[in-house]
Amino acid sequence: MRPPEPTPPGGPADPPAGTGRPARADARRNREKLLAAARDAFTAADDTVALEAIARDAGVGIGTLYRHFPTRQALLEAVYVDEVEAMARAAADLAELPPWDALSQWLHQYVGFAATKRALNEALMETDPDSNVLLTCRTAIAGAGTALVERAQRAGVVRSDTTFMDVVRMVGAIAMVPTEDPEQTQRLLELALDGLRYHAHNS
Question: Is the pTM of this model over 0.90?
């Protein structure tokens, strides 16, 4: 059972407003540290972790956490959005590569994202199943991935009888395979990618 959230304290947290650029930089660093600590906590199958523990792991006070994220829901959503935006940026950054290389590298990154996505998705479904964040993030990922798949298909390097949803479900399932050997996950992914890639039939 999730522990009750403490009442947000009213004391100071980040440097006070009006102190200039260093204050904004400090606030940005604190936000990034909180997101990293929350990501680690939530993806460790521990969505019941107390917010005080997340603040402590981030090296900030609980007041700083509440200044950035007034509720657990706000923190969950921020972590999820941060992960999705990173994947969308990765798709854009890889666009300069040849179509197959871009798709393959992005799917390798997606394996790591999938584990985080599942944990955060479950936590968000528990706290707010009607959250618009879930739909918005799914749309963003689908858009980024579909663009890479279709570009590879137009280049003739990915089989034409598949869709991004086929691919992402396959890769997501691989990410969830229980194993203590990270290299096994990579081998499974390479096998799946080999099946995805178009191979001209020998004449």
Answer: no
